[in-house]
Specification:
36% of the residues lie in helices and 12% in strands. The strands form two sheets. A five-stranded mixed beta sheet has the order 3-2-1-6-7, covered by helices on one side. It has a two-stranded antiparallel sheet with strand order 4-5. Helix 4 packs antiparallel against helix 5. The longest helix has 27 residues. The model has no long low-confidence stretch (mean pLDDT 87).
Amino acid sequence: MARRENPEINAGSMADIAFLLLIFFLVTTTMNVDSGISKKLSEKPPPDYVPPIIKQKNIFEVNINRNNELLVEGERMEVKDLKDATIAFVDNGGGEGKVEDGVKTGPCTYCKGEKSESSSDHPNKAIISVQSDRGTEYGTYLIVQNELLRAYTELRNRLSMEKYKIPFNELEEAYKDDKNNEALKKKVEDIKTSYPQIISDAEPTN
C-alpha cells in the first residue's frame, strides 16, 4: 500500500501576512497622549532678592478641592463662570500700576472694569493664585487653567482690536511668521505688557 503523504503548507507567505497585519495595527491603533498647558517657569531669584509686598486685593485666589469643586475668593463657583470672574478682577483698574524700571505706570486707562477699591489696582499687579489638592483630578486642573487663559486671551484680543484693529492671536501669528518685523514685535509686546499673564501655582494641599 502506497504511503499517503501529508500536504505541505506553504509558509513562505506567512511572514508577508504577519508584516501586513503589523502595519495595519500600527496605522489603525490610537495612542493616548498626555495633554498639558505650556508654562514658562520663573528664574531663580538672586540671593539678595527682597520680594515685594503684595496687597491682598491684588491676589485672586482660585482653589480646587479633592472633590474637584471650585472655590474662588472663598466662594463656590461653577467653572463656566470663572472666565468672567477673572476678567472682572484683572480688568478692574482700581488704582495705580506698579513702578517698572523706576517709572510709574499710573492708572489703567484702557481697563473697562468697575474700578472697585476692593479689587485689583492694575493688570500688571493682578496675580492669580491657583491652589489644588493632591487628590484633585488632573483634568479638572487643566479645565480651570484653560478658563484662566481664555480670560487673558479675551482681554488681549479686545485691546489689540481697539489699538491695532486686529485680534491679538492674529497679531501674534503674524509676528511668528515675520520675526524681523520690529513694528509687529512692538505691538505684541505692548499688548502683553498691558495684560501680563501672572498665574501662580501654590503648593497643593493634602
